[in-house]
Amino acid sequence: MALIKRLIMKSLYAKGPAELVKILKLEKSYQAKQIYSWLIKGVTDYSLMSDVSKKIRDRLTEEFPSVISSKIVKTQKADSATKLLIELHDGALVECVMLRDGDDRKTACISSQVGCAMGCSFCKTGTMGLVRNLEDYEIVEQMVHLRTLAEDITHIVFMGMGEPLHNFGPLMSAISEFHRPEGFNISMRRMTISTSGLVPGINKLTELNLGIRLAVSLVSANNDLRSRIMKVNRSYPLTELKRALIGFQHVAGKRITLEYCMLHGVNTTKEAAKELSSFTKGLMCVVNLIPWNPIDELEYESPTNTEIREFTKELDSLHINYTLRMPKGRSISGACGQLATSTKR
């Protein structure tokens, strides 16, 4: 039996104390709580779990040697961001980023897939295609690795590699683990799911009504242009997307973020601003303007300062609620749209 467990158990993460009792064949629930507490702290060596009896530690080392399935293989730092390259158990690679905003806010930007099937033309991850979905423990382990940089992570955004709502089950399992009071204890209102506009996934979120925040990569409020830039719009056009967002907002009662990646000469015109104004009517939202972060393989350009200034002036005249995001992690290719890896090391 121990041999079978050694072969199939890749990770003890994304499992609460009650599950650990059964998996690790423990006699007392408090033993699982002790082990779980160490796991949350990032301790993956049984010998360091000082309040667990030596007898249990020795048995677990023999029967369940695989505590964590992934490892950090590269770290890149900038002033306000640190990017980790994570190697998974099968050699596949994902990236996650720690974003710092002052002393009080530290945000974990986490991936949900290796690659992405959405194929958004401005995003480097989209050039990879979808390699595979991440398991729930692979999502959780990114948080464990990032906590080695800053234990007091305050927020989580699912804005790394992949379309989160395209990997719905493992995503929900990981969110439950992040929210567990005796674990990471991250409030639902401090977690944000970012989607390209996968309407069925938005509708599922509406049904669950978790209290989590939602961000949508809009990029253009012109249906034809958005279909050219983002393939997802061909399946779920703007009318369907807006209907889903209104439904989510009606249930959740939360402001939605519309992410607007600004592309030089593409979506920064007066007409684009008017179309954006029309789309936002009836929505409680903020438009997050993100100047496109350069990617060598793609032919887009970042907007000029003048272009940004003129576009925001137009938004002001239309009374559109917006923020202008300053790029973080651009120098280490850790900014919005820049995450991508080779398939394997």
From TrEMBL:
<dbReference type="Pfam" id="PF21016">
    <property type="entry name" value="RlmN_N"/>
</dbReference>
<keyword id="KW-1015">Disulfide bond</keyword>
<keyword id="KW-0963">Cytoplasm</keyword>
<keyword id="KW-0819">tRNA processing</keyword>
<keyword id="KW-0004">4Fe-4S</keyword>
<dbReference type="InterPro" id="IPR040072">
    <property type="entry name" value="Methyltransferase_A"/>
</dbReference>
<feature type="binding site">
    <location>
        <position position="293"/>
    </location>
    <ligand>
        <name>S-adenosyl-L-methionine</name>
    </ligand>
</feature>
<dbReference type="GO" id="GO:0002935">
    <property type="term" value="F:tRNA (adenine(37)-C2)-methyltransferase activity"/>
</dbReference>
<dbReference type="Pfam" id="PF04055">
    <property type="entry name" value="Radical_SAM"/>
</dbReference>
<dbReference type="GO" id="GO:0005737">
    <property type="term" value="C:cytoplasm"/>
</dbReference>
<dbReference type="GO" id="GO:0000049">
    <property type="term" value="F:tRNA binding"/>
</dbReference>
<dbReference type="GO" id="GO:0070040">
    <property type="term" value="F:rRNA (adenine(2503)-C2-)-methyltransferase activity"/>
</dbReference>
<feature type="active site" description="Proton acceptor">
    <location>
        <position position="95"/>
    </location>
</feature>
<dbReference type="InterPro" id="IPR027492">
    <property type="entry name" value="RNA_MTrfase_RlmN"/>
</dbReference>
<dbReference type="InterPro" id="IPR058240">
    <property type="entry name" value="rSAM_sf"/>
</dbReference>
<feature type="binding site">
    <location>
        <position position="194"/>
    </location>
    <ligand>
        <name>S-adenosyl-L-methionine</name>
    </ligand>
</feature>
<dbReference type="InterPro" id="IPR048641">
    <property type="entry name" value="RlmN_N"/>
</dbReference>
<keyword id="KW-0408">Iron</keyword>
<dbReference type="InterPro" id="IPR004383">
    <property type="entry name" value="rRNA_lsu_MTrfase_RlmN/Cfr"/>
</dbReference>
<protein>
    <recommendedName>
        <fullName>Probable dual-specificity RNA methyltransferase RlmN</fullName>
        <ecNumber>2.1.1.192</ecNumber>
    </recommendedName>
</protein>
<comment type="similarity">
    <text>Belongs to the radical SAM superfamily. RlmN family.</text>
</comment>
<dbReference type="GO" id="GO:0070475">
    <property type="term" value="P:rRNA base methylation"/>
</dbReference>
<keyword id="KW-0698">rRNA processing</keyword>
<keyword id="KW-0489">Methyltransferase</keyword>
<dbReference type="GO" id="GO:0019843">
    <property type="term" value="F:rRNA binding"/>
</dbReference>
<dbReference type="InterPro" id="IPR007197">
    <property type="entry name" value="rSAM"/>
</dbReference>
<keyword id="KW-0808">Transferase</keyword>
<feature type="binding site">
    <location>
        <position position="116"/>
    </location>
    <ligand>
        <name>[4Fe-4S] cluster</name>
    </ligand>
</feature>
<feature type="binding site">
    <location>
        <position position="120"/>
    </location>
    <ligand>
        <name>[4Fe-4S] cluster</name>
    </ligand>
</feature>
<dbReference type="InterPro" id="IPR013785">
    <property type="entry name" value="Aldolase_TIM"/>
</dbReference>
<feature type="binding site">
    <location>
        <position position="123"/>
    </location>
    <ligand>
        <name>[4Fe-4S] cluster</name>
    </ligand>
</feature>
<dbReference type="GO" id="GO:0051539">
    <property type="term" value="F:4 iron, 4 sulfur cluster binding"/>
</dbReference>
<feature type="active site" description="S-methylcysteine intermediate">
    <location>
        <position position="336"/>
    </location>
</feature>
<feature type="binding site">
    <location>
        <begin position="162"/>
        <end position="163"/>
    </location>
    <ligand>
        <name>S-adenosyl-L-methionine</name>
    </ligand>
</feature>
<comment type="function">
    <text>Specifically methylates position 2 of adenine 2503 in 23S rRNA and position 2 of adenine 37 in tRNAs.</text>
</comment>
<dbReference type="GO" id="GO:0030488">
    <property type="term" value="P:tRNA methylation"/>
</dbReference>
<keyword id="KW-0949">S-adenosyl-L-methionine</keyword>
<feature type="domain" description="Radical SAM core">
    <location>
        <begin position="102"/>
        <end position="335"/>
    </location>
</feature>
<keyword id="KW-0479">Metal-binding</keyword>
<keyword id="KW-0411">Iron-sulfur</keyword>
<dbReference type="GO" id="GO:0046872">
    <property type="term" value="F:metal ion binding"/>
</dbReference>
